[in-house]
């Protein structure tokens, strides 16, 4: 497909050069008729000569440079769209001018005065319109192809028309040519191509197997078969549950009655009423019980437990024991051998307290700072 597109491109350029050469020659002949006075619009002929000469001088070097240089500036997609658009506008202007002056030249079957001028004007009119149509068709095709491939390769606008792979199955990311703009896009690193996997053994159906074709019923899909009915049981009775074993009453047995005495009827006190439900009572602590009166037997630990632990303990004071008088005798004196015994205690003289009429003064330093300690007069 790429070769076909490039072939049509070169054909369009060849026709464009050929038609412009014809326009230059005919316009020059038409302009030479000024000496005879038959040409009324020399400006149009001069414009067509300039347009044809410019197209030939520009297009020949562009094709030669494209053949010998890869990604030439003049052959890039964006640049080629620009100069093709300029030549299309120039061709359209020349064709419109020739269409406007045809009635003025009386180039109609009734007019017989300017036959040579009418013939050259009709030739210029035809070739200018042909150039306009060729350039317009090539311009539309080139823009559509560039926009289509720009979705897969963003460097299509900076690549030469001859060097880009048009309409190929695989469009590898091509590097932009040197000195071109990348429109602010970052170049992604290339990933190495992985070779296709090689299978040592190919699995498949042999020649002896045939695939059964699929047949579709026009009436619709077949109904699914109903599940088989379960067998019904008649006169079936479930087995009765086994009766629990009889509980053995040990206390009511004869040996128990004869050996052990009958239990005494002891009345247990009822617990006080509680406002909490049973599950709260089970999870919480026990209900405080009032203290039970102590029996006639004294407690083993004296006054413990006390009825009121916060009350201080009152202990009975015991009388002080009197020391026995120390005997006096020869054993208490010093031994003649020089061994000393316990020191001898002398009787203390009696102390008599005499009544005094004077008042006692406080004892202590006079410079005390205690405000409560005031000397008496």
TrEMBL record:
<feature type="transmembrane region" description="Helical">
    <location>
        <begin position="77"/>
        <end position="102"/>
    </location>
</feature>
<protein>
    <recommendedName>
        <fullName>MARVEL domain-containing protein</fullName>
    </recommendedName>
</protein>
<feature type="transmembrane region" description="Helical">
    <location>
        <begin position="12"/>
        <end position="34"/>
    </location>
</feature>
<feature type="compositionally biased region" description="Low complexity">
    <location>
        <begin position="329"/>
        <end position="341"/>
    </location>
</feature>
<feature type="region of interest" description="Disordered">
    <location>
        <begin position="170"/>
        <end position="197"/>
    </location>
</feature>
<feature type="transmembrane region" description="Helical">
    <location>
        <begin position="46"/>
        <end position="65"/>
    </location>
</feature>
<feature type="transmembrane region" description="Helical">
    <location>
        <begin position="122"/>
        <end position="148"/>
    </location>
</feature>
<feature type="compositionally biased region" description="Pro residues">
    <location>
        <begin position="288"/>
        <end position="310"/>
    </location>
</feature>
<feature type="compositionally biased region" description="Pro residues">
    <location>
        <begin position="260"/>
        <end position="274"/>
    </location>
</feature>
<keyword id="KW-1133">Transmembrane helix</keyword>
<keyword id="KW-0812">Transmembrane</keyword>
<keyword id="KW-0472">Membrane</keyword>
<feature type="region of interest" description="Disordered">
    <location>
        <begin position="255"/>
        <end position="377"/>
    </location>
</feature>
């Amino acid at each position: 497909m790429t070769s076909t597109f490039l072939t049509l491109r070169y054909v369009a350029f060849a026709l464009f050069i050929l038609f412009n050469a014809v326009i230059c020659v005919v316009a020059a002949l038409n302009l030479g008729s000024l000496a005879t006075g038959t040409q009324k619009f020399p400006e149009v002929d001069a414009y067509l000569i300039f347009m044809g000469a410019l197209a030939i001088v520009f297009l020949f070097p562009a094709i030669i440079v494209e053949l010998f240089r890869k990604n030439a500036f003049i052959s890039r997609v964006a640049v080629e769209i620009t100069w093709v658009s300029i030549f299309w506008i120039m061709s359209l202007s020349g064709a419109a001018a020739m269409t406007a002056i045809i009635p003025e030249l009386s180039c109609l079957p009734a007019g017989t005065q300017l036959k040579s001028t009418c013939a050259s004007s009709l030739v210029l009119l035809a070739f200018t319109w042909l150039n306009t149509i060729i350039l317009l068709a090539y311009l539309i095709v080139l823009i559509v192809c560039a926009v289509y491939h720009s979705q897969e390769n963003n460097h299509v606008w900076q690549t030469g028309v001859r060097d880009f792979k048009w309409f190929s199955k695989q469009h590898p990311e091509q590097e932009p040519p040197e000195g071109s703009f990348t429109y602010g896009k970052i170049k992604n690193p290339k990933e190495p191509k992985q070779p296709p996997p090689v299978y040592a053994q190919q699995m498949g159906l042999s020649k002896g197997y045939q695939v059964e074709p699929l047949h579709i019923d026009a009436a619709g899909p077949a109904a699914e078969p109903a599940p088989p009915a379960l067998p019904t049981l008649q006169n079936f009775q479930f087995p009765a549950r086994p009766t629990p074993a009889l509980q053995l009453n040990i206390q009511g047995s004869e040996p128990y009655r004869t050996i052990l005495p009958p239990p005494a009827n002891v009345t247990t006190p009822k617990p006080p009423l509680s406002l909490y439900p049973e599950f709260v009572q089970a999870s919480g602590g026990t209900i405080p019980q009032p203290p039970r009166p102590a029996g006639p037997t004294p407690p083993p630990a004296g006054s413990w437990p006390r009825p009121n632990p916060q009350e201080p303990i009152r202990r009975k004071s015991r009388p002080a024991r009197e020391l026995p008088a120390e005997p006096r005798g020869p054993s208490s004196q010093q031994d003649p051998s020089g061994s000393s015994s316990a020191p001898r205690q002398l009787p203390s003289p009696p102390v008599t307290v005499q009544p005094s009429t004077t008042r006692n003064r406080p004892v202590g330093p006079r410079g005390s700072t205690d405000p409560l300690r005031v000397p008496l007069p």
